[in-house]
Amino acid sequence: MTLFILTFQNGRGTLLAMNANDFLLQAQNADGGWGYRVGAMSYVEPTAAVMLALPNSSSRARDFLLSIQRSDGGWGIAAIDPESGWMTAWAVRALAVIPEARDAMMRGANWLIDHAGLVVTGDDREQIKQRFKIDAALRGWSWQIGDASWVHPTALAILALIETGQPNHPRVQEGVQYLFDRAVPSGGWNIGNPWMLDKQLPATIQDTAVALLALRAVNVTSDDGRVTRAVHAERLRDAVARAQTPAELAWGVYALKRWNVDVVDALRRLNTLQKANGSWNENPFITAIAMTSQK
Questions:
Q1: CA distance 111 to 108
Q2: What does the pLDDT average to over 52-77?
Q3: I need a labelling partner for 19 at 20 to 30 A (CA). Which of 42, 143, 224, 225 fits?
Q4: Which residues of 132-166 are buried (b: 16+ CB within 10 A; e: fewer)?
Q5: Over 80: is that where the pLDDT of 9 sits?
Q6: Closest Cα to residue 254, out of 195, 206, 202, 194?
Q7: pLDDT digit string (tens) for 213-257?
């Protein structure tokens, strides 16, 4: 993707060609993956994000993901991780469009179906509901096995299962219930708890964005008031209008475009932060998200 950005120097406009594709291709590691920095160890998340941003990226990226899939069907955060976890969703998403990787993709999808965050039932469930205003019996997804459910891995798992052709799976539907249960009442999402005792916790751009992407993928409509509060009100749209970092802008634009919200100003500000080498923050992961947000 070549982005042409008009910058102003001494009052004169200068058209610069900034090629994010070239940056990402040059940043690919010898093992086929990408890290969070050029030359850093390859991780599943940036590798999968680049593959989604560059659908025609080399087969080396696919082979890297296949080579580090664990025997249980999941993925850890990197080759050195001895346990499968939340990055399984990223790997499944990246492999979903590669026909020859279907078996590996479905093994990953089954891992997601078979694993869930901790749940609480009985009297403890009622106590948590009274104190924190959440339903602790709803199954979402956790960062790691044995952990509680959180918004970000839950939304990613929903996206992954939808992209494997399972939008009506009961785990997807319960994941949607979990997201709505964890929404901040004034609109949006944070890491997972909308309340701390009697204090409402603020929403964050990235968690709100990924939750909205998941809800859009399951065909929740903008007529739903919970979505309206998240997109508008004082949440994502206004938060993105104030955002200053490439990561916040990229995730915000990515989600808002899917909900048909005008992002021209945010996209302009995002693109002015692109570096001369085509990257955002010299970071392959953020660069991939920024590229995806342009689509």
A1: 5
A2: 95
A3: 42
A4: ebbbbbbbbbbbeeeeebbbbbbbbbbbbbbbbeb
A5: no
A6: 206
A7: 999 999 998 888 888 888 875 579 899 999 999 999 999 999 999
Torsions phi, psi of 52, nearest 5?
-70, -35
pTM: 0.91
From the list 230, 220, 219, 231, the residue with the least C-alpha distance to 260 is 231
CA–CA distance, 29 with 145 (Å, rounded to integer):
29
- Could you give the angle at the alpha carbon of 248 between the alpha carbons of 259 and 132, nearest 5°? 80
CB 188 within 8 A of CB 203: yes
pLDDT digit string, tens, across residues 80-115: 999 999 999 999 999 998 999 999 999 999 999 999
Angle, in degrees to the nearest 10, between helices 44-53 and 59-67? 150
Burial class of 120 by CB neighbour count within 10 A (0 to 12, 13 to 18, 19+): middle
59 near 72, Cβ under 8 Å?
Answer: no
pLDDT at 200 over 90: no
Q: Three-state SS for 4?
A: strand
C-beta separation of 231 from 212 below 8 A: yes
